[in-house]
Amino acid sequence: MRHKTITLCPTTYEIARKMDNFSAWIRQELMKKQATQYKAKPEIKEKYGAYCEPCDVTFLDSDPVLLQGRMPCKKCGKGTTYLGLIE
Ligand SMILES: [Zn+2]
Which residue range is the domain that position 38 belongs to? Predict the structure, then answer.
């Protein structure tokens, strides 16, 4: 174990003093924080594209199945060209 000195105000000092497992509690809270941060990481979703030539518009979606097989353009309704993975 390693030591780290922390600064408490009179109120938090009193709370900490009454706790018999203050160090254990701090360790637990820090681990919780790390777990929360890890979970909070935004899920990176891959984007696939389908291009409509007449409209010059690329439609992006995370679901490649939706874009495959000449998905109709949302603007003109013509079949789009599947571009595959975009980003
Ligand atoms: Zn179009």
Answer: 10-85
SS3 1: coil
Partners of 81 in the beta sheet? Answer: 51
Report the share of the chain in percent with pLDDT over 70: 92
Residue 56 CA to ligand 1 center (angstroms) comes to 7
Domain tally, the chain: 1
- 4-23 average pLDDT score: 93
Distance 52 CA to ligand 1 centre (A): 5
User: How far apart (Å, rounded) are the C-alpha atoms in residues 60 and 47?
Assistant: 6
- Is residue 73 within 8 A of residue 80, CB to CB? The reply is yes
Instruction: Report the C-alpha gap between 35 and 75 in whole angstroms.
Output: 44
pLDDT, position 44: 67
pTM given for the model: 0.49
